[in-house]
Amino acid sequence: MKRQSAELTHAVVRTALAPVRASPEVRAEQVTQELLGAVLEILERRGDWARIRGEDGYEGWVNMGGLLVRSRERAEAWWDDSGGQPAVVLDAALVDDAGQPVGRLPWGARVALVGESAILPDGRCGRLTQGGWVAWAELGARFPQSGTAVVATAQEWLGVPYLWGGRTRWGTDCSGFVQAVYRVHGFLLPRDSHQQAEVGEPIDIGSGLEALQPGDLFFFRASDAMRVEHVAMSLGGAAILHAAQANGFVTEGDLQRESEFERSLTARFVGARRLFR
User: Fold this and answer.
1) Which regions of the chain are under pLDDT 50?
2) Based on the structure, what is the number of domains in the chain?
3) Residues 63, 33: contact at Cβ < 8 Å?
4) Is residue 4 in a domain?
5) Is-catalytic flag, 194?
6) What are the pLDDT digits (tens) for 158-174?
7) From the candidates 10, 125, 174, 185, which is the catalytic residue?
8) Same structural domain for residues 71 and 83?
9) 174 an active-site residue?
10) Residue 64, exposed/middle/buried by CB under 10 A (0-12, 13-18, 19+)?
11) Active-site residue, selected from the candidate residues 10, 185, 194, 242
């Protein structure tokens, strides 16, 4: 297994999204996704595959076809090479000057803005025909750090299909959904629900679920183990918003309802966390 040279230890994602797999083969489990413009550390190369570490610390294997290998310095400031300013995509479709499709980009992808055009890491350029983006410098104003603002953003994901390892509005799992929503509000959460359960301040719910505020996170254990395997966002009190495989998409729920699924969740509830003071 060949270690990369000191000069080329990082990469920028050049495709709309790059599946991250458990092992270096196309049939392996997708454990997460890295999105256009993300900067990755290359830990190892094996044929056409690279074992990478993402900005959230998550590791896995990505096909090299989706990457632009760079030095750390060039990778971390790739938009400077384009002469643009960094921006975050909120789902977008781009066309070139001739009106030909450049690509569709998912929520959370990164581009460099030059005037009304977006420059992609591989130099392609396009103008917006659908969707939108937000300049990096304007994220704080568009997505403030408050629980009610986080919930408002999360509700834009209602109906998104459930997809194991996904974290875009093309398909998401429970922790990918929470991570993606919180990310635009300035929080870089870990990838998996059991990791997210260690972030923020624990909430005392001795007086009941009414203590939960919008944006707080509920955590649930597996049915046959104590390890956390599911996360949901509180809409306030027992009302939740989450991506669950049993539902098939991002949906609202209520832990005080008497449906079989919600009774099961309530029985597996292990705690709640708050990221906002």
Assistant:
1) 1-6
2) 3
3) no
4) no
5) no
6) 999 999 999 999 999 99
7) 174
8) no
9) yes
10) middle
11) 242
